[in-house]
Amino acid sequence: PQDAQTIRLAGLQFVSSYAFEAMQKVDVVRLAALSDPELRLLLPCLVRMALCAPADQSQSWAQDKKLILRLLSGVEAVNSIVALLSVDFHALEQDARKEQQLRHKAGGSNGESILVSQLQHGLTLEFEHSDPLRRLRLTLSELLAIMNKVADSNGEFFLKSSELFESPVYLEEVADVLCILQAELPSLLPIVDVAEALLHVRNGDWFLCLLVANVPDSFNEVCRGLIKNGERQDEESVGGRRRTEALRQLCQMNPSQALNIRAMVVEECHLPGLGVALTLDYKPDTADEAVSPLVSYVSGLLLGTNSKVRTWFSMFIRNGQQRKRESSSVLWQMRRQLLLELVAILPRSRSTHVPNDGDMEEEGASGYSGLREEFVVKASALLRLYCALMGIAGLRPTDEEAEQLLQLMTSRPPATPAGVRFVSLSFCKLLAFPTLVSTPEQEQLMVMWLSWMIKEEEYFESAAGVSASFGEMLLLVAMYFHSNQLSSIIELVCSTLGMKIAIKPSSLSKMKTIFTQEIFTEQVVTAHAVRVAVTNNLSANITGFLPIHCIYQLLRSRAFTKHKVSIKDWIYRQLCETTTPIHTQLIPLIDAYINSILTPASKANPEATNQPITEQEILNVFQSSAGVRRQRYSITTQLLILYYILSYEENLLASTKQLALMQRKPKSYSAALMDQIPIKYLVTQAQGLQQELGGLHSALLRLLATNYPHLCLVEDWVCEEEVTGTLPLLRRMMLPSNTCRYTQSQLHQAFQKLPSSSPRLMRILEHLTLLSPGDLIPYAEALTASMALLLEPAVPRRILQTLNKLWMGLNTVMPRRLWVMTVNALQPSAKLLRQQRYTQNDLMVDPLIVLRCDQRVYRCPPLMDIVLHMLNGYLLASKAYLHCHLKETADFDRQNQTVSNLGVPGQPDTPEVTREELKNALLSAQDSAAVQILLEVCLPTSEEQQLGANTESLLRSIRGPLPGKSKQGSLGPRARGKVEDAEQEGGLLSDLREVQCLICCLLHQMFIADPNIAKLVHFQGYPQALLPLTVAGIPSIHICLDFIPELLAQPQLEKQIFAIQLLSYLCTQYALPKSLSVARLAISVMGTLLTVLTRAKRFSFFMPILPCLVAFCQAFPPLYDDVAALLVQVGQVCASDVATKARDIDPLIARLQYLKEKPQGAVAPGGGSSKLSLPQRTAEELGGADPDVQLCYCVEATFMDIISSTLHGL
């Protein structure tokens, strides 16, 4: 029946695209040119146009209307249409609406009809014998019945058998009636609903085309409605196929809108077959030679970003394959068309022999291309489309399709970038769909093609002018096969094809065998890889698969070491050919290379390692950075080489145990080499290029923090902000040019003529402050060499401060070299005469060399600041140096240690922990020695003491005059006056005070960094005169409260005395609950010691610590009772020992008891003189007196001090 319908439809006259366009534009001339059968189809619209009153009253339309009337006058059928238009349509509409209501009430059954009374004959005969009104009623009744049934069908398709729409004799007349009804009753018969109803009758698409042709402006509305109501998969059902066919006919009638209709299809994800059919029907005005419309459309659906569209179209292909092959199926029409396009571009004559060099000369530079150049892009597009159809949509190719595809894939394109892309796609398609190669002949064809690829790769790369070629991809795949990284191959294939395809690793087994055994043995791979040229100016901007990817994989699989192929030169050349932005593969490549140097490929062959880059090669990269040929190597190359060295050294240390077990000791890079590399300068440069360098800057910082902590000082980073911030930048912008007006020799001469040349030197130094740290580097030698000259008297302070500023600027770019130069310049003059020059290594082994400088530096704050900065740096450097030294030697020494116990039987080898402890002890000794030297520097010299410098003034200014200092008390009024005058004259702004502040800052940092240093230094002790300075000047000294109980428990009296003196100052500075509890403990300890100490020791212990009790009481008044009891106890013990020697001891004890019980009675109510005045005794009398007597008087003096300080505080 379907075939019969097709024949019948074939006999029907459809509206041509020419006629439709004439109707759309109302082109009267075109309409006049139409044949009678074509014109007959458009009569309903033309007659209405001629008869109805027009909205357009222009003269031109009046003329056109006359022409239309003339055109219609010769057509007989016009009369019947005029008769139809003469009917009362208002009454007709009312009857129709009543009928609809009746049907709605009756539940849709075909009972009584208001429109059509009882029919005597069949519909066709009734129609033939009826007048125009009855014809309209018959057609309307039938149409409404179908529309109602469609509304009630819930989307299920049905085909309504209707005589009226099937009788070939009356089709045209029924069409006339239909068009008139829709035009006159648009609210009753919306055109979209009518179109939907017509799909359910035979010849529906013909009626639909006629209806739309007579209302041409409704074309888009009708199409959108039909698509919206359409099926998601149109090929699955009769209704879907009918809808697709109807829409296809509509688009043939109006081809200019076909692509818009196709876009609607994709937007709604309905009727995929229609989209393909419209593409097959589409004939573009200008043919695109590159890619056909079908390939573009299907590729866009499957490879676009819309996953909903991709799934919808994939389902269309999957479902279409399940049905038997039908010529009418749109899917098979599409496949046939694609195959025709594929065959059309296949080479006519295939050259299947592997070309040799002789052939190449004869054939010229065509590269044995069977594929013509103009077809290459088209071929690539077709390959990607077939990949998408097979990989995403699950298309199973027929034998014919598979054979033709293989023929295309193994064809040989010309040497152009497009040719390179085609070969890469073909190769990836072979890997993705190995089932295309099924017969031995096909396998042989593939092997020959792959061999041709390998041979032609180098020629292709040079001829095509591309850096990322398929040669690298071949190598990479070969390496992945050798190392069995099948998932990496799948990833590579998907990224090259640009689509995600599910490839089973098991499907690659055949390809793996061909690759690893026939084409690319591992030895061939490694030998080939080394010969591949490095990528010039390698950066992240160069995409695709590059030689670096292949070398990286071979390094990871240890192929080079296995086959004794040296790769060092290739890596070095590639590192030298890099630029920003950095390629992501470079850092992994360096890491893999370092691993291959240090770790053998197998335990059986410990010598199988790569060679490291030589020191000379490294120097070549860095020497050019300071010389004239600054641009020879890019900053990227220098940073990568720096990363290589630092990472190599770190990995070497980390793997010393394993290397020792294998009796291997790879060479470490020398300290001399490291000294010549401007590490800090390079890292500073990298900081400004973080975006371009990816993760390289952070990796370098990590390595520096581990191996070069002295280059990562926090204060350095803070200083860098001052040097590289906005303000210095603005100041430098004021410079007319980057060049400096003054030369190094002028600077040197100005230094030599000091102090007379001070103004000139100041001018030069001020100008240098405007230069960037990098531009200051040439002046570093001149600035540091003459530093000692600034220690002479009468050098202006401003010169010293400016030099300090310049030094700190240079410190941000060349710290290590600057430090060595500075240490050597500041040596004492005696050493300078001996020309003893220290090296970087000397200073790391013994950081205290920094403090063996000219003594005048200790009273020159700007230079002392520099010395302290260097000391801090070298102490950190020494820690890192000893740590590295320990790791380097430990494991090898243990391996080679045969006699370590010196013949003592049963003694085990010296354990590792002992070495670690020794190192820690050495570092602690070093740190504490530095602290002790610095504390010693804080003490005033004899000259300064004569001038009246006083270390206690800092603390005195905080807590008032310290009571109980008998030595001060013994000074005469004249001497005391001198001190006060000196203090007023110098105030706090003396060189000594400034140096003390700088030292206290450094000690504060050291104590925070390692609290154990604070503990060690205080267990060692230092002059009591420094305690006011350290307690007030070092904020972190409060941590001493934690270990004072431990210090009090020491057996040495000196340590106990120092602990109590320290505690007295801490209590005054930090009056905290913790201080109170430690003070209670100290008083308790003093009470205990009183009972056990001998007479001599008692005197030496209590004389220095009794004044401390005043501070305890001043800080914590609740301790008064305990202190008073202790003082009475001390007095009693002493009194008992001297009872027979001195008469006035008993009255003394009585006075003490009285003071303890009534301290307020000791002072007059008005704050006047003491009631119990102490007899005045000279120092000579006290000194010559018995120790116990002296102690008694000291106890009494302490009592009085406590009372007076308490009342003074009130």
UniProtKB/TrEMBL annotation:
InterPro entries: Int2_metazoa (IPR026236), INTS2 (IPR029321). Residues 958-978 are annotated as: Disordered. It is found in: Nucleus. One of its GO terms (biological process) is snRNA 3'-end processing. One of its GO terms (cellular component) is integrator complex. It holds the Pfam family INTS2. Keywords: Nucleus. Belongs to the Integrator subunit 2 family. This is Integrator complex subunit 2. The lineage of its organism: Eukaryota, Metazoa, Chordata, Craniata, Vertebrata.
